[in-house]
Amino acid sequence: MEFSLLVNAFEQMETTTSRLSLTDYLVQLFKITPPEEIEKVIYLIQGKLRPDFEGIEMGLAEKMILRALAHSSGKNVASLLEIYRSTGDLGDLTKEAMAHRNQTTLSSQVMTVERVYSVLFKIAKTSGPGSQEIKIKLVTGLINECSPREARYVIKFIVGSLRLGIADNTVMDALSLAFTGSKKNRVLLENAYNSSSDLGQVAKILATESLDAIEKIKISLFKPVRPMLAERSPTIEDVFKQVKGSAAAEFKLDGERIQVHKGKGHVELFSRRLEKITGHFPDIVSIIVESRISNSIFEGEVVAIDPKTLEFLPFQVLMRRRRKHRVSEAMKNYPVYLNVFDILYYDGESKIQLPYKDRRKLLEHLIAEINDRRVLLVPQEIVEDEKSIARYLSKALHAGCEGIMVKQLESEYRAGARGYAWIKLKKEYGSNLTDTLDLVIVGALYGRGRRVGRYGALLLAAYDPTSDTFKTTSKVGTGFTDQHLSDLYNNLEKYLLMHKHPRVDASMPMDIWFEPKIVIEIVASEITLSPIHTAGMNTVKENYGLALRFPKFTGKVRDDKIAEDATKIEEIVSLYKQQKRTISN
Ligand code: AMP
Fold it and tell me: Is the pTM of this model over 0.70?
């Protein structure tokens, strides 16, 4: 397939923010893509070369790209930097520099998707001494063969500034329309994606085989399963209304969720965001490697513990384990326990369709087989009424937990789905909002005074799954230490945008915008009506959205969450209504 066809589609997509138009452009693109190339086209649209869990990265600094570009365009780095300052994007700079170079394209051959992909793959795979030089040569060679428009996308891809604003859901809508003629089959694609976490593979099977083959995609070892998620309930009465009878109440531990895959003597750990994090917990890995269990996938929360009292320690302590160097020292100072809460695959068979009560029995079996005190079952009690839920919540809070999870005993494991089969209940609500919200950073105002050179306030948004957009609910400037401010400034740099991101719905002017990527935890005193914020606009009152009053950063960056895992608009609306009820009681 000619690469220019992909470039045409990308250029069209850059001109729109409407989900419907994006879907149309994608459908047209998929219809002209040869089936054997669809996998690569999907990865390129997602801005990656392979699914996230394979952890493939380009590994090229911007400085190096400038050097490659200097080779190709015949301009020196200083003059390139000058153009860069005005364009603000290395891809745009590349197009400009390549359009004005002295030579014409060196190759008379047409650039293909296959060629671009294979060179990009080679760049990513090159490592070791001298690899930067080899990578630069590969980039130079590739952009010399491209037209300036094509070179712009090659570089945008390498530096991760593609930013087409296409969510996976939109890609699945378009795949379903292009290959089955209807959006209604999207749910089958979604199920397959939730089991395999590999949209390229799902698309390839759809294009080269059939919908039946899609239904056969099941969970398998060493491919992370998209995690099942919980709904939030604001009160005990509400939880009880949802479960209608007996349910399993468990401690909601404040640590890091991991998915453990154990084959024959081999173990991998995946994060909630489906990244491979085997190296973060060598102690847990060696326990599982040495255990008798094989061909199993299970999930649990890793929590730091106080080695003397065996009490659970807060999440921040666990984060001290997140380091590349002196891991063994950190392991000794901050030992961790794995509290297992679900099992998805056992003895080579999927178990996600078993009712939760039976999966828990299997877990008991598994824990006995592992037989190490550092891997335990998450504490659980069967609750039957509001009183027993209240008792268990207070027990969990006393033990230092964030709250409890209440689970329906008959429920299946629903990969990638958020629902009332799992309900999270944190502290009881009073007239003040005591629970936290996880919001996405979408914009910022520059700091003044002490905060010059950093951000003074961040614009935060909640997620709206219906429109697949992020709607603002708060501007926050308190709760940050100097260290937080400079870390956030650095981490946000790669998501900088001059204009509002297409999936962000905001009416406030900001100095700078971001791709919706980083999720942070916020506490606030209450939720109020606001004519400026767009979250819940017109839901409670015409021309009003919902805003947080006295928002404050808790110090916790939720890097275990992707933007779509942020608090949903619906949750904010329900918290607002709940709060009104409590105040008027
Ligand atoms: P939240 O991150 O607030 O949406 O809450 C869901 C998270 O709670 C899960 O992704 C787990 O990381 C964590 N968690 C802690 N204890 C449990 C438990 N007993 N069952 C399920 N998830 C738990």
Answer: yes
